[in-house]
Design goal:
434 Repressor (Amino-terminal Domain); 7 helices; about 150 residues; mainly alpha
Length: about 150
């Protein structure tokens, strides 16, 4: 799956339908920046919107995933299979990010515990403070990542 090729295909079909990014975005209930990200290959449409996108562009889901119109008009996979694959892929990406967030929190707690082992001289106090600062930063980033995906 080539995101850049898919993005170019979305842009081509949108222009063939004489739609602006804003018009397509309004029809799909997303922002024009989202359409721009798809068209530049920075991200893929969410699985929940793929079917509506294809309907607006008069293409099949298989054509969207190939990034080009099918020549023989016979898709190699059923559209439901493709949608399920997209959904599963996006869920796995979210789980991976969630795992990174949890790992950062755990590392932050470990660094915080380690920071209490140091102390007694100026250098050790500096090292202890540095470790404590790093632990707080890691935990905050971890909480941000975990919070970001728990709201979705």
């Amino acid at each position: 799956m080539n995101q850049i090729l898919i993005g170019k295909f979305i842009a081509l079909r949108r222009k063939e339908k004489n739609l602006t990014q804003e018009q397509l975005a309004e029809k799909l209930g997303v922002s024009n920046k989202t359409i721009s990200k798809w068209e530049t290959g920075k991200c893929m449409p969410d699985y929940s919107i793929v079917r509506n996108l294809c309907e607006e562009l008069d293409i099949t889901i298989a054509e969207l995933m190939d990034g080009k119109a099918l020549e023989n008009n016979v898709p190699s996979f059923k559209e439901e299979q493709i949608l399920d694959l997209i959904r599963r892929t996006q869920e796995l990406e979210k789980q991976k990010d969630l795992q990174y967030g949890i790992m950062l929190i755990i590392m932050g707690v470990a660094l915080q515990a380690l920071s209490y082992a140091f102390g007694g001289s100026n250098f050790k106090d500096f090292l202890s403070g540095l470790l404590l600062g790093l632990s707080v930063a890691e935990m905050l980033v971890g909480l941000f990542v975990v919070g970001k995906y728990s709201r979705k």
